[in-house]
Specification:
Elements lengths: L9 E4 L7 H5 L7 E4 L9 H6 L3 E3 L6 H17 L1 H9 L20 E5 L3 H11 L4 E5 L5 H7 L2 E2 L2 H7 L2 E4 L13 H6 L5 E4 L8 H5 L1
Parallel strand pairs: 1-2, 2-3, 4-5, 4-7, 5-6, 7-8
Helix pairs in contact: 3-5
């Protein structure tokens, strides 16, 4: 990136591109804008950009429905053991149907907890209504309009974790959300619960997840 940044007026970046002060200075003062082709902007040193008078943009709303589709697809996949059974068949181990083989869990009627009720969180809630799911959510800002429209119940993170069969995380990666789900939070969850994270990886403490 440092080599490529020389003399450029703009950088189009994605989640894997770390744009810090060193990269900005490599332009030789010509850099005017850093355009993130994603919603989050934790890959850009905002303080360094501000100090240098460089604009930083992102693309909110572009992938809202796409990420919501993926998230609900993951909910279906883990509960119905779709990927697991697919691998089993492809391995050549399948010898016929059994009444308890890859039985999985129902999605309809279960409780979905949403942490972060932004555009994507709302889109997930709309999909979950079609499965007659009970909807709990936490966000730093309460959304009474969506509560009325979608039947969402506002509560704190602890209650979301304790009472949900599926927990779906949709928060930006900022200092306050790094390791938002840690050892203590995992211990609050039901042993049978599923955690779906389609936000940034470091929102989850992976070491605590493995334990």
């Amino acid at each position: 990136l440092i080599t490529q940044a020389k003399g450029v007026a703009g950088i189009i970046a994605c989640v894997g591109d770390r744009i810090d002060g060193e990269v900005m200075d490599a332009s030789g003062g010509s850099l005017k804008a850093i355009c993130n082709a994603i919603v989050g902007y934790d890959n850009v040193d905002i303080k360094a950009a501000t100090e240098r008078g460089i604009y930083v943009t992102n693309t909110p709303g572009v992938l809202t429905e796409t990420v919501a589709d993926l998230t609900f697809g993951l909910i279906m996949a883990v509960s119905r053991r779709i990927a697991e059974s697919d691998r089993y068949i492809r391995s050549g181990n399948w010898r016929g149907w059994g009444p308890k083989q890859f039985l999985g869990f129902d999605v309809h009627g279960k409780t979905l907890g949403i942490i972060g009720l932004g555009r994507i969180g709302v889109a997930i809630a709309r999909r979950a209504r079609g499965f007659n799911m009970k909807l709990l959510y936490f966000d730093v800002r309460r959304n009474t309009d969506m509560e009325k429209e979608l039947g969402l119940q506002f509560t704190d993170v602890e209650n979301v974790l304790k009472n949900s069969d599926f927990v779906s995380v949709h928060v930006p990666l900022i200092p306050q959300t790094r390791h938002l789900i840690d050892k203590k939070e995992f211990e609050m969850m039901k042993e049978t619960a599923f955690l779906i994270n389609t936000s940034r990886g470091p929102v989850i403490n992976e070491k605590a997840l493995i334990q």
